[in-house]
């Protein structure tokens, strides 16, 4: 992750604007519906004509350019999404899913885990991606965060034709369940609340051994870095043992110590409690927050605090 260039604030704002363009277009179409069926149909036809026009232009660019042009265009997230809409992306679904997993692999590795792409199969309703999580990701409380936010976000953006993500337990080869890609995030969107990605480029400045607090989207986030080669890690600012803030916590190696109850947590393995009384139960783990580069900008995924930690 560290070798991906950071974008200027202006570029970041422009990317954020285009990422929400689809929602704004749909809102405009819905408002046209209030004027009657005829106005709604004209608005929809206008969108189809515009999409068809730029699609035809993209096709000429892709097929008339130099051999390396397609590869260069595919590295831009916005352009790549438009190429996908028109079936012009130069990479097949396996290559795109593999590249997407490579982008989130540093995050998984920072929590002592990894993910393997087992295979991609065709089905009646679309394609199914089979993944196997390894290390901390296959058993710790952060696995839900990793799957629902990091992996789902990356795979769906890279390969919208994927209809199902199947998670296979690496040690047994038995699939504990199949998650529909369409409904994967549904339970975090109840009551109008959804998971949001917030740019936090300042977190990249956290130095090895440092613990810093950041207020992001109304949530206090704790960020730390174990060493100079590992990416920064992010956790919600709450000690699961004493239920208090971790402000003033110290980091020794990979162990974060609560300044109040002195409980220790392994930040390199999803914030797992170390030497915590068994009566505390599985809740004795910090709540990890996915911290990934999106469009070249370090961003954190947050859900409404009232919704609680992932199951």
UniProtKB/TrEMBL annotation:
<dbReference type="InterPro" id="IPR034904">
    <property type="entry name" value="FSCA_dom_sf"/>
</dbReference>
<dbReference type="GO" id="GO:0051537">
    <property type="term" value="F:2 iron, 2 sulfur cluster binding"/>
</dbReference>
<dbReference type="GO" id="GO:0004497">
    <property type="term" value="F:monooxygenase activity"/>
</dbReference>
<comment type="function">
    <text>May be involved in the formation or repair of [Fe-S] clusters present in iron-sulfur proteins.</text>
</comment>
<keyword id="KW-0001">2Fe-2S</keyword>
<keyword id="KW-0479">Metal-binding</keyword>
<dbReference type="GO" id="GO:0016226">
    <property type="term" value="P:iron-sulfur cluster assembly"/>
</dbReference>
<dbReference type="InterPro" id="IPR017941">
    <property type="entry name" value="Rieske_2Fe-2S"/>
</dbReference>
<dbReference type="InterPro" id="IPR001075">
    <property type="entry name" value="NIF_FeS_clus_asmbl_NifU_C"/>
</dbReference>
<keyword id="KW-0408">Iron</keyword>
<protein>
    <submittedName>
        <fullName>NifU family protein</fullName>
    </submittedName>
</protein>
<dbReference type="GO" id="GO:0016705">
    <property type="term" value="F:oxidoreductase activity, acting on paired donors, with incorporation or reduction of molecular oxygen"/>
</dbReference>
<dbReference type="GO" id="GO:0005506">
    <property type="term" value="F:iron ion binding"/>
</dbReference>
<dbReference type="Pfam" id="PF01106">
    <property type="entry name" value="NifU"/>
</dbReference>
<feature type="domain" description="Rieske">
    <location>
        <begin position="197"/>
        <end position="300"/>
    </location>
</feature>
<keyword id="KW-0411">Iron-sulfur</keyword>
<dbReference type="InterPro" id="IPR036922">
    <property type="entry name" value="Rieske_2Fe-2S_sf"/>
</dbReference>
């Amino acid at each position: 992750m560290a070798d991906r260039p950071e974008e200027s604030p202006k570029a970041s704002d422009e990317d954020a604007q285009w990422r929400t363009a689809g929602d704004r277009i749909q809102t405009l179409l819905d408002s046209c519906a209030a004027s009657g069926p005829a106005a709604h149909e004209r608005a929809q036809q206008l969108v189809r004509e515009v999409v068809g026009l730029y699609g035809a232009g993209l096709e000429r660019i892709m097929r008339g350019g130099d051999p390396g042009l397609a590869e260069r265009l595919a590295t831009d997230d916005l352009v790549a999404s438009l190429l996908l809409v028109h079936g012009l992306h130069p990479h097949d679904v396996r290559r795109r899913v593999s590249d997407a997993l490579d982008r989130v692999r540093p995050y998984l590795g920072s929590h002592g885990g990894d993910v393997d792409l087992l295979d991609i199969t065709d089905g009646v309703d679309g394609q199914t991606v089979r993944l196997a999580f390894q290390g901390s990701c296959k058993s710790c409380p952060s696995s839900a965060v990793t799957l629902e936010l990091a992996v789902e976000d990356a795979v769906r953006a890279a390969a919208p034709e994927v209809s199902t993500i199947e998670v296979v337990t690496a040690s047994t080869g038995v699939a504990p369940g199949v998650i529909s890609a369409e409904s994967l995030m549904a339970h975090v969107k109840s009551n109008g609340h959804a998971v949001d990605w917030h740019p936090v480029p300042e977190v990249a400045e956290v130095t090895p051994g440092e613990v810093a607090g950041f207020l992001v989207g109304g949530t206090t986030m704790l960020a730390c870095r174990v060493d100079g080669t590992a990416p920064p890690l992010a956790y919600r600012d709450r000690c699961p043992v004493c239920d208090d803030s971790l402000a003033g916590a110290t980091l020794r190696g990979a162990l974060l110590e609560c300044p109040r109850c002195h409980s220790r947590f392994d930040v390199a393995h999803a914030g797992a409690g170390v030497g915590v009384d068994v009566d505390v139960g599985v809740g004795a783990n910090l709540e990890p927050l996915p911290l990934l580069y999106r469009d070249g900008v370090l961003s954190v995924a947050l859900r409404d605090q009232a919704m609680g930690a992932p199951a």
